[in-house]
Amino acid sequence: MTRVLLILMLIFLISGCITDIATEKTQKGFVEFREEVHVDNFILVFNSFGFAQEFNNNIATSGYKLVVVSVDVKNNGTEEEHFPSFSELKLKTDRGSLYDYEVIEPLIRYTKFKPKEEKKVMISFEIPEDEAPTEITICFREGFVKKTIRIKMPPSPELDLQPPKISNVRVVNITQDSVTIEWLSDEPADSKVVFWRAFYPNREVYDPSMTTTHTITIEELDPGTYKFKIVSTDENGNTAVNDNNTNYYVFEISPPPVISPPPIIANAGEQITIGNITIIFEEPRITKQISLFEPDEGYKFVIINIVAKNNGVRETNFPLHYRYAKLIVDRGYQYTHNSWLSDRIYSIKPGDEEEGSLVFEILDETTPLELQFHNGLLDKQQIIIKFNT
After folding, report:
1. What is the DSSP letter of 39?
2. For residues 263 and 283, what is the distance between their CA atoms, to the nearest angstrom?
3. Nearest-5° Cα angle at 259, 254 to 265
4. Cys bridge to 345: 30, 189, 250, 356, which one at CB 3.0-4.6 A?
5. Are residues 299 and 180 in the same domain?
6. Residue 330 is part of a domain; what is its CATH number?
7. Number of domains in the chain
8. 184, 232 Cβ separation under 8 angstroms
9. What is the CA angle 307-308-312, rounded to 5?
10. What is the model's pTM?
């Protein structure tokens, strides 16, 4: 029994000592804004605050507002240390209500600071719109000792938490490979355009200059339809994004106009040159039968032999595609080739000569006048071979 009483008395004495130490360590009165607060080897400076409806993806509840406080935190020691553990972080208002913090960005709880490392920390609280902040209370634990710090809030907000307002977004000066985009902001901010087209990754152009009249020129654009959005951030880090109400803005880069080179005109039997390939179209031959095939009644076959040679140093595809061939006859009729009977030339090795043919089925009473091709490329250069009929 005596031993139990001695243990109880010892616990009572220790508890009294801890309470006394805690009382001595509790901060009396207020710390003013921008006044240094020392906790272990750390220095905290609560330097400004402001109101917002949204902070770090946290949106205020209807009828409430966010109070965002900027705090400078520094490890003033000579060793890497964790930020001191705190048990309470509350905001008091003019009505005596207490509100817990909502967000700390970046999160410093359980974070290690290197010696002399400094960070700017933003803390947000949510309070009713008709209440005003008066003080912040933060309680730290140093072992069994509680240290309470009360920071007196200034009478009016000094921290700008409002993003710039973006207006008058315009697309100007579109060329074949560039575009200029302009917009206005209600306060100085930087300029960024994020743009993309279907199936391609996002790209961006950025100008760090702080201005209210923004101009971004995007160059080296391929033809196509592009979507884009505007991003501007002010000097206090408040970012505005204008994406045209999620519809995004659009501009179009048109391909350059195709200018066809003059046609190549030659007579049958004459040599023409396309790149490294020389080609000769022979005079047409008329026949009523090719192998086992005969034309329809009242029609005849026209065969035009082709000889092509590769004068280059690399294997090259024949530059004319048969599907673009048309045979013009004396009545003004046009015929396409018979793909079953024609002998197509595909590729030609360096120095080799390949032979092929085009076969058409035309009316008996018509006479071939000319063969028309184009090269199948964007410029659609015409090739016209005239026959001696």
Report:
1. E
2. 20
3. 155
4. 356
5. no
6. 2.60.40.1240
7. 3
8. no
9. 160
10. 0.48
